[in-house]
Design goal:
about 270 residues; alpha+beta; Phosphorylase Kinase, domain 1; 3 domains
Length: about 270
């Protein structure tokens, strides 16, 4: 019997519940003999659930009046058949115009709550939301949660500092039970940002998101946000914006955030 060939597409379809029954049984049988892959699939499930929790509140918002009016507008009586050619061309043009208008309106509608809420680090989504999304995307990853691992910390610091145009360094969090896993470079609203990842003895991960997009904005004390299943403490200090994200209790995360803040202050 040929060994089963289970692709990455199969695994993602499995997580999405999109496999036919026969293939589903094959994938489940294969996963029972591959504990590492089974753990990765569970991480995908957790990631999917966290992203859903993060964005469901936006999807649940009611349509604004401008968009609702399109849905409620009665259908227009058909034009005479003699004008069918002109009608088809005009309708295509009208449809294209409406699509562009609706996309613009929908984008504004989906983002308006975030742009208007609280302080904005830069034009775009708030710092807390950016950090939470990055945390949800990368922290469950089993194979490659970071681009550069902690055993290459010196190279990591040099690389991220060069790309951000300012010196950045990961705080030491061993006193609160977390060790550095590594870091990566991410796109921000208007430039690169850094993400440092930490993990405790139980495998719980947290991420520190560091950006220079807050340059010129007033400094802030700790602010707290709950983004879906992710808790975030964030603040602006000098030329940097920081956001610490994790799926842990607010009180525990506050202790870690205080340790991060204290170290950053001493390093000035």
């Amino acid at each position: 019997m040929k060994p089963q060939v289970i692709s990455e597409n199969d695994l993602h379809a499995y997580v999405d519940g999109a496999l036919p029954a026969a293939r589903l049984a094959e994938v489940e049988d294969w996963l029972r003999g591959e504990p590492a892959e089974a753990a990765r699939v569970e991480a995908y499930r957790a990631q999917k659930a966290a992203l859903k929790a993060l964005f469901d509140p936006v999807l649940a918002e009611p349509l604004p009046p401008e968009l609702a009016s399109f849905a409620e507008r009665p259908a227009v009586d058909p034009l005479p058949a003699a004008h069918a050619g002109w009608r088809a061309t005009s309708l295509l043009r009208l449809a294209a115009s409406l699509v562009l208008a609706l996309l613009g309106g929908a984008a504004g509608w989906l983002a308006h709550g975030h742009y208007a809420a609280g302080e904005r680090l830069a034009q775009g989504l708030p710092l807390s939301h950016q950090a939470a999304v990055a945390h949800v995307v990368y922290s469950p990853d089993v194979r490659r949660p970071v681009e550069v691992a902690a055993d290459q910390e010196e190279q990591l610091v040099k690389w991220l500092s060069k790309r951000l145009g300012a010196p950045v360094s990961p705080p030491r969090l061993g006193v609160v039970g977390y060790e550095l896993v590594g870091g990566r470079l991410l796109p921000g609203n208007s430039g690169p940002v850094a993400q440092f990842m930490y993990q405790d003895g139980s495998g719980q991960r947290l991420t520190l998101y560091v950006t220079t997009e807050g340059v010129g904005k007033p400094e802030t004390g700790f602010r707290f946000a709950r983004e879906g299943a992710v808790n975030v403490f964030y603040w602006i200090d000098g030329r940097f914006g920081y956001a610490l994200s994790a799926g842990i209790d607010k009180g525990e995360l506050a202790k870690v955030a205080t340790a991060v803040y204290d170290q950053l202050e001493k390093a000035k």
